[in-house]
Amino acid sequence: MNYKTLYNGVKIPEIGYGTYKTPAGDICENGVRTAIExxxxxIDTAAFYGNEKSVKDGIIxxxxxxxxxxxxxxxxxxxxxxxxxxxxxxKSLENLGGDYIDLxxxxxxxxxxxxxxxxxxxxxxxxxxxxxxxxxxVRAVGVSNFLxxxxxxxxxxxxxxxxxxxxxxxxxxxxxxxxxxCKDKGIAVEAWAPIAKAxxxxxxxxxxxxxxxxxxxxxxxxxxxxxxxVIPLPKxxxxxxxxxxxxxSDFTLSEEEMRILDGVTDIGRLGSHPDDxxx
Length: 279
Ligand SMILES: NC(=O)c1ccc[n+]([C@@H]2O[C@H](COP(=O)([O-])OP(=O)(O)OC[C@H]3O[C@@H](n4cnc5c(N)ncnc54)[C@H](OP(=O)(O)O)[C@@H]3O)[C@@H](O)[C@H]2O)c1
Known about the structure:
- This protein is α/β, with parallel strands linked by helices and 279 residues long.
- The chain has a single domain, classed as Alpha-Beta Barrel (TIM Barrel).
- 41% of the residues lie in helices and 15% in strands.
- It contains ten helices and ten strands.
- The strands form two sheets. It has an eight-stranded parallel sheet.
């Protein structure tokens, strides 16, 4: 497994395993166990996904030491604010077991109920994140779905800079401005929906690069993220796909292949706009 280093020195795997919409129970446990047996060391979950306990059970089933796994979870929109954040964190920690979480993220910058006061809301919420970081309950703190204007505000009001920003990124939706902003500030970027939710495999440019590299479309899309310097978090509950998605370290994309993939314009954003989420 290759690792990147966050600005505080913490090492983070260059690829992670996503669990959004993975039902709690056997499906999640088996998926997480299979992922770890395959070689994944970063598991991405969230309080909102309702599967943190099953993530813990899958990790236990894998027989790999907890300290060798990088666990990310996220604060849900209903739990923003200083006290609520500390309470929500305790709940996630209880679900996930152990006495620390590797990376804790604010899931969305502008919850529906904070549309008019998102700046104050973020300030209070981030103070709790800073406390969790100071107390070593988390090894790294970060955000998700933050665009440059959200980050501008946070950085101007923070004592601890976020180490990670997790955003929607895939071929056809590279989010270049936010990625460059984060790189400039030393914030690592993670890509959610890195395989565009499996909706783009038939796009001619993707099929073409899959043929020229002898890889599957999913592998090409995941490699594109790594070659862009962002950390992909592909999700699958299907054992063969979990393995397929992980096997991307034996090739890189040529400049020409990157150029072809960068030319794809017909996918676009698949999730909510961070300033307009309905939750
Ligand atoms: N921070 C956020 O707001 C946010 C938002 C969304 C997602 N995320 C995180 O990012 C992760 C990835 O995003 P995502 O789950 O939305 O999308 P994704 O990983 O791009 O796509 C997942 C879909 O692709 C299918 N799939 C996976 N590998 C495949 C393959 N090799 N061939 C064909 N189909 C394949 C999966 O089906 P099966 O599972 O049935 O195999 C699933 O339907 C999430 O799981 C979550 O951890 C974060």
